[in-house]
Amino acid sequence: MPRFDLSLAELQDYRPEVSEPSDFDDFWSATIAGSREAGGEVTVSAASELYATVDVHDVTFPGYGGDPVKAWLILPAHREGPLPAVVEFVGYGGGRGLPTERLAWATAGYASFVMDTRGQGSVWGSGGETPDPHGSGPAVPGFMTRGIESPETYYYRRVFTDAVRAVDAVRSLPEVDASRVAVTGGSQGGGIAIAAAGLSEGLVAAMPDVPFLCHFERAIGFTGSDPYQEVVRWLAVHRGAEARAFETLSYFDGVNFARRADAPTLFSVGLLDPVCPPSTVYAAFNAYRGEHKEMSVFPFNEHEGGQGYQWEAQAAFLRRVLGGSA
């Protein structure tokens, strides 16, 4: 993939005007409050005896509207006292998969909490187990246009609320130090992590990796890749619906959540990424409110980004943020 976006110098100074609804904060405050008021229990059960150095637990917690959402809780088998936790969100089309695919954070000494993404888990990986019981109007195959007619019905309203409730759930666990919780994820998971950072208080770190769901106004029509192209296909059929669709998307733009996030953050970007163009990543990064922010740049990588190199950078970053306590 040849370079197609702005130069690195231009990206580092890229601060576009991104639409923000006047009732953005009220919308999200009401959404989160309503889901917390819906209640529901966090249930934890042992999931496997195959592992000698980690303990694996199957978790169900209440998400949007109290809907049950699945997660893995993976803990170091040998631990003393409550642990710092990393809440991880999954990329587009994937589910929480199998515990063996999610061992890294526990091996580094953290409580690892991997959230299943409602309605997803059948495109790649080892599957998901969380249904999305809410319907939508006519939509393009995929998730980007489900309920796009309004912010109240849009799919990511439920997913982002699930993410906030995942942070709530992990903070309720006796194995976790509620004051030391970080969020992370790649691609869609990175976009969810930015939303969680903007909607949750007191996080110690946010580590979005090649994040999706940022700067919709540029991404849609700028890149020919899915998932953004799903919205292009929807608009090509629903002629004249552009204003309505983009108004809905403005409630879910990572740039607007970044403006409200203050936890120390480490982003990453692939400068050849055709899925999440570099300018969309930098739009969120440059808008990020927190003063402690870093960017890992991979000049010759596409959407795979830094992969294992970036995980090691995240682990080192989180250890610094926590003062070497994990």
Report on the structure:
By secondary structure, the protein is of the alpha/beta class. The chain has one domain (8-319): Alpha/Beta hydrolase fold, catalytic domain (Rossmann fold), CATH 3.40.50. Helix content is 33%, strand content 20%. The protein contains 11 helices and 9 strands. It has helices at 8-12, 24-38, 104-107, 155-171, 188-199, 216-222, 228-237, 242-250, 254-258, 278-287, 308-321, and strands at residues 43-48, 54-62, 68-76, 83-89, 111-115, 176-186, 205-209, 265-270, 293-298. A 9-stranded mixed β-sheet has the order 1-2-3-5-4-6-7-8-9, with helices on both faces. Strand 6 (176-186), helix 5 and strand 7 form a beta-alpha-beta unit. Helix 2 (24-38) crosses helix 4, helix 4 (155-171) crosses helix 5 and helix 6 packs across helix 7. Residues 1-319 form the Acetyl xylan esterase domain.
Key phrases:
326 residues; alpha/beta; Rossmann fold; nine-stranded mixed β-sheet; 11 helices; 9 strands; globular; AB_hydrolase_fold; CE7; hydrolase
- Could you give the count of β-strands? 9
Mean pLDDT: 97
- Low-confidence blocks of residues: none
Which CATH class applies here?
Alpha Beta
Number of helices: 11
Name the beta content range.
15-25%
Looking across the biggest beta sheet, what order are the strands in?
A: 1-2-3-5-4-6-7-8-9
**What would you call the shape?**
globular
Q: Please name the fourth-level CATH homologous superfamily.
A: Alpha/Beta hydrolase fold, catalytic domain
> How many separate domains make up the residues?
1
- What's the CATH topology name? Rossmann fold
Distance between the termini: 38 Å
Q: Which range best describes the helical content: under 10%, 10-25%, 25-40%, 40-55%, 55-70% or over 70%? A: 25-40%
Structural class: alpha/beta
The biggest beta sheet is recorded as: 9 strands, mixed
Rounded radius of gyration (Å): 19 Å
Task: Give me the CATH architecture, please.
Answer: 3-Layer(aba) Sandwich
What is the helix/strand order?
HHEEEEHEHEHEHHHHEHEH
GO molecular function: cephalosporin-C deacetylase activity
EC number: 3.1.1.41
Pfam families: AXE1 (PF05448)
Keywords: Hydrolase
